[in-house]
Specification:
Oligomer: single chain
Mean pLDDT: 92
Largest sheet: 8 strands, mixed
Radius of gyration: 21 Å
Structural class: alpha/beta
Shape: globular
Helix content: 25-40%
Distance between the termini: 47 Å
Strand content: 15-25%
Number of strands: 16
Strand order of the largest sheet: 4-1-5-6-7-8-11-12
Number of helices: 10
Low-confidence stretches: none
Length: about 325
């Protein structure tokens, strides 16, 4: 008896540039130019993709991710919102540079109600390099995008055979293939040959999402990095320049010097939202330990690093959520 022929799923690939679209100067040199290959050429260079899915390609930008902008983030939102309404699409893959990939993934995760898989993927080594990883990563991302097990999950990052959720993923190495980790939560799955495996079931409950900012640029939020012999000058300057929020990349449990703390207190008294995060690579920032957050009307970032804390605060301010207690409630929602 003839077996039924299963129609291949359709996957939309949104390209933004990055190392995955870069070209090495030679097979062993570290030098390369990011975002040089067009989206269509990138997909055409990976013939195995057509065996996995019907591929549609839309170019969003062609940049190194260090140049990711608020406007491009909103452009991605609009592309994905349109794709979510297309019943023919099984999932969405976004090619992206690794430098700010965790920030884009987190932003999209916070503002997009999504049921279809949304996966960000990149490369640590460009095409032309002896051990380039972009093709394998892209194939894995499309495998995840077409997996029924990937539905109703957070925005994901797929790199080096590993699946991470947007909230917990961090780039933890400058150049290694195993650059991404999730130090607080661990990975959520793996791509094992032909198999996509998740460690936990998908979320069945409805999740509340924030509205994306209506326009770019987003409200100004600055990250201030704490260090030895720190004064309050950078904090005071940020206030003078009209910042709406300050993320402290504090030492240890989100701490800082007495001089910097005084400047943060003064900024909070002027209506600037203060969020204490940490420059440490893992762990949670706790309220009211060495610093009296209740008295100072500070927010703590929980598990969010400074760059993700900045994006979340920008989204909240754009939604006119400005009260520290309201902001703290949202920061404390882990998933």
């Amino acid at each position: 008896m003839q077996q039924p022929i299963h129609e291949k799923a359709t996957v939309l690939i949104l390209t933004t540039g990055g190392t995955i679209a870069g070209q090495a100067q030679d097979h062993k040199s570290l030098g390369y130019h990011a975002g040089q290959t067009s989206g269509e050429a990138l997909i055409a260079s990976v013939p195995a993709l057509k065996d996995l899915a019907n591929i549609q390609v839309e170019a969003v930008s062609q940049i190194g991710s260090q140049d990711m902008s608020d406007a491009i983030l909103l452009d991605l939102v609009h592309h994905i919102q349109k794709a979510e309404t297309n019943p023919k699409l099984a999932g969405i893959v976004i090619t992206h540079g690794t430098d700010t990939m965790e920030e884009t993934a987190f932003f999209l995760n916070e503002v997009l109600p999504h049921h279809k898989p949304i996966i960000l993927v990149g490369a640590m080594r460009p095409a032309g390099y002896a051990s380039a990883d972009g093709n394998a990563n892209l194939i894995d991302a499309v495998k995840v995008a077409t997996s029924p097990l990937a539905k109703n999950r957070p925005v994901m990052i797929v790199m080096n055979d590993t699946i991470f959720s947007a909230r917990s993923a961090q780039k933890m190495n400058t150049t290694n293939l195993e650059a991404f980790q999730a130090p607080n939560a661990g990975s959520i799955g793996i791509v094992n040959n032909e198999h996509v495996r998740f460690y936990l079931p998908s979320f069945s409950q409805e999740t509340e999402y924030l509205s994306p900012p209506s326009q770019a640029p987003f409200p100004r939020v600055d990250i201030i990095y704490s260090h030895v012999q720190m004064d309050g000058d950078l904090i005071e300057d940020a206030v003078k320049r009209g910042t709406k929020g300050i993320i402290l990349a504090g030492v240890g449990d989100g701490n800082t010097s007495a001089a910097a703390l005084k400047a943060l207190q003064n900024a909070a008294n002027k209506g600037v939202v203060i969020v204490r995060s940490t420059r440490v690579g893992s762990g949670f920032v706790n309220r009211n330990v060495e610093i009296n957050d209740d008295q100072n009307h500070f927010v703590v970032s929980e598990d969010l690093n400074p760059q993700k804390s900045r994006l979340l605060l920008q989204i909240l301010l754009a939604n006119h959520i400005t009260t520290p207690s309201q902001i703290q409630t949202i920061f404390s929602k882990l998933y």
